[in-house]
Fold these 2 entries.
Entry 1:
Amino acid sequence: MSDRPKVFVSRVIPDDGLRLVLDEADATVWQDDMPPSRDELLRSVEGCAGVLTLLTDRVDDEFLDRAGPQLKVVSNFAVGFDNIDVAACTARGVAVGNTPGVLTETTADLAWALLMAAARRLVEGDRYVRDGHWRTWGPMLLMGPDVHGATIGIVGFGRIGQAVARRARGFGMRILYQDLHRASPAVEAEYGATFMTLEGLLPQSDFVTLHVNLSEETRGLINRERLGWMKPTAVLVNTSRGPVVDSLALAEALQNGHIGAAALDVTDPEPIPVDHPLVGLDNCLIVPHIASASRATRGLMATMAAANLLAGVRGERLPTPVNPEVYDRPVG
Ligand code: DGY
């Protein structure tokens, strides 16, 4: 029997991190492209000291029961951790890690790419050419709104929201933002950003981009009523989590011209079925949750997730714990 800590890694992650795990732990790595089924996941975590999870793995009491009391750490390969019941982990003394910071700029790049692509109708244009419809230059062909000089409403003004604001500044945009907490005057001045309620922000924004965590407060934040507050020409960009937007209400708003377009990296449900009303709408662009998918960033995420996992199984403090309160629990 190996005296190395037993860990489960629920998908093949970039080598930068995987190598670190394999060097130090007795690791089982799920090899399939598809995630383990619930049963397979529960079976795989039995007796583990650490588990490296993905956002497709639900970590809850059932998972923790099956893993057993020796479990020390759950290290999520993502900055978001809405797949994990953090309170349940804390109650059992299990540290939870995530990968903040390293994916900020890459995610903002994708949000920007979606915003530009939806505004300038790039996917529709590409399809138009490939389908053989391009017969001449057209004075009215595939017109869309200008990005430069427009008003952008950033909902969630944390690391990624602010990274989007930096891009918006470069395009000479007016920047509005909404967040649970108002940013400091210095941050507002740095971005030239104006704090607003959603009621104020949505009717004024040509582009609305979402950068909030998924929580009970933000689930369904962009609902039918709030979509109704937006401009008929507005573009909605979502790179946060699918359930932040009511997807059926969004489909209706896009179909009825209540808003202009949407560009989504995340959907509800995920993956989105091809017969979902959002799929097939020309004014809805959807990509498969790839905001952090640059080679460099995924490598950094892997290294960080491995560092959290290995610190946890050694009994050390995680470099980036989600639940630092776990270290304040009385021992014994
Ligand atoms: C995250 O990290 O939360 C993203 O959704 C995947 O990179």
Entry 2:
Amino acid sequence: MEHTNVNAIEAAKQLDIINELKVRFEQEKSKTGKTKTYHIETFGCQMNSRDSEKIAGILKQIGYEETDSEEADFVIFNTCTVRENANNKVWGRLGYLGNLKKKNPDMLIAICGCMMQEPTAVEKIKSSYRFVDIIFGTHNIFKLAELLQLRLNSDRMIIDLWKDTDLIVENLPNERKYSFKAGVNIMFGCNNFCSYCIVPYVRGRERSRNPKDIIDEITALAKDGVLEVMLLGQNVNSYGKTLEEPITFAQLLQEIEKIDGIERIRFMTSHPKDLSQELIDVMKSSKKICNHLHLPMQSGSTRLLKIMNRKYTKEGYLELVDKIRKAVPNISLTTDIIVGFPGETEEDFEETLDVVRKVGFDSAFTFLYSKRTGTPAATMENQVEEAVAMERFNRLLKEIQTCSANRTLRDEHTVQKVLVEEINSQDPNLLTGRLGNNLLVHFPGDPSYIGKIIDVYLEESKGFYYIGRLQE
Ligand code: 5AD
Ligand code: SF4
């Protein structure tokens, strides 16, 4: 059977269960007078945030109402496992949840996401956190209603974990966090197996969505008032290669560009090894693709890049940056860097600093290497001492801060288009908006601007954000 068909059948089945639960919840509510609440705690990346919107969509449809507090009837932890500290946060919060559940035994607790794709984490829950009600993974989020129904009809822990899947069920109810911007999955999984990274093991093999489904979804979002889309995938530059009718990421972008109502297109993450000239050309000619590229370099040492299995060299990375800057001169470049990868020497680290200085990134996410069991790097000799890695990490941070501040100064005293996102969380008199290059600006203004793209004068650079004022 065609996959599109299988996906549609699965979606229909889940919608039936959602409706059954809705009736059941309405009946309960008419007896108790209470609406049940849910709370989702999302750890990790934008893929997880997108997954949490799906979870919220299903729960709202069933009749749950969202609450900010963990004292909810149904608490869901959507976990991340990319680095050890992500896991530690989950264990800490889970202990706290256990105490809450002692006070409210009817409370339901579900754990899902990347950490649950690791058998050791699931074993730990089964042995030490017996109060957890439902465990599922990254491949079967669309089954949440079915798992909830199973749990409500039994008193055992429901565990449903898939190693991988070909199913792509993306059209169930969905609860977007913002009305004016949205994340859109264009592909799932990763085939790159960078030697430090656990993602290919927990998110499975690379699969691209059909271009038509993506275009339909974005067209519907645009009709619903969305101005900005963020196309999501672990390696968007290899989008479409595995489809029956192959299409390139650059071609997909050109199709999305045609959708009326969409004003801004972002995407992440780009792997340098797959970034094509075609994509650079499309970015150059596009009116909607944002002036920003996130291009993880991980290390500046060709020797380490090889051991990391990144498939490019220091020089290759620098040449790529040159090509991009020539095509799109004012583009904002950001990156990811790992410090303390096994065997990293002072010389290797100096190479990283050298690239940072040469490129002059607008900003960078810097990570201390974290050993992930099951990855090739975990068993490599010469793991770097923590104190050494920490010292390098701090030096790197300083370098990045200097680069960022220099780059932000460039646009000081200019007028920029800004998508107004929210009332400033620190000062309610200010609004917070995002520039095309992804930086934030805070400025006085009326909340009615939220969700609109307006002109803002950047009065003062604060290193990695701006203070501005409305440009009438
Ligand atoms: N240790 C530290 N950082 C890591 N990343 C991925 N795996 C690890 C790890 N084991 C970082 C990479 C990647 C980002 C999302 O997380 O820099 O680009
Ligand atoms: Fe991990 Fe590398 Fe895949 Fe990114 S490209 S998810 S770093 S394996």
